[in-house]
Write a structure and sequence with these properties.
six-stranded antiparallel sheet; 13 strands; 196 residues; alpha+beta; 15% helix; five-stranded mixed sheet
Length: 196
């Protein structure tokens, strides 16, 4: 089953009254970070032998990092790179515009010849993409390199994932402030309740 994490969370909560184990061979979760509470809920409802992967990617990249979820330990393991397109891929961490050393937190940058060049019907090149032979895409995600992959630490900006969709909280505030009687707006995302 391939499903957005929040949709699976609702499915598990909606069927929480049932003691029956949900049967899958493999569960691929995507679109949002996974909380420890979600892992515990999932562990109660699925067979212990199921393979569960949390996929991390962006529409700008034809490949993903994957995190294998283990029900035997609550601490998530690092994300490992899965190349879904067969081309060369590299990743690095940048801090203040320079490459960060292993173990330091910075912005995750992915380099590949198949990173996209921009969005449809936009005349300007996207700022997060550097046009080099191997294009670099700055993901906006904070990460550090660990021995077997990367570990994520949230966003460098105020972008969130809500039901698998990207939402820029600054854009929401700007649009609320366009309402004639609103002078100032502050939008806050509470990840523990998945509410804006």
């Amino acid at each position: 089953l391939f499903i957005v994490t929040s949709a699976m969370d609702y499915l598990l909560k909606y069927t929480a009254y049932s003691e029956e184990k949900i049967q899958f061979k493999k569960l691929l979760l995507t679109g949002e970070p996974i909380s420890e509470g979600f892992i515990q809920l999932l562990a109660r409802r699925v067979d212990a032998n199921i393979e569960v992967l949390n996929l991390y990617s962006a529409v700008e990249m034809p490949y993903a990092f994957a995190q294998r979820i283990s029900f035997n330990k609550t601490t998530p393991t690092s994300l490992k790179l899965f190349n879904l397109c067969g081309s060369q891929i590299a990743y690095k961490i940048k801090k203040n515009g320079s490459n960060a050393t292993n173990g330091n937190i910075g912005e995750l940058v992915v380099e590949s010849p198949v990173v996209f060049s921009g969005y449809l019907n936009q005349e300007t090149t996207i700022e997060s993409i550097e046009n080099t032979p191997n294009k670099e895409y700055s993901t906006g995600d904070l990460a550090k390199i660990v021995p077997h992959g990367i570990e994520l630490f949230g966003r460098a900006d105020r972008q969130i994932k809500f039901f698998g969709n990207r939402i820029e909280l600054d854009d929401v505030e700007i649009n609320i402030e366009k309402i004639y009687f609103v002078t100032e707006a502050v939008v806050y995302y509470d990840a523990s309740y998945n509410k804006i």
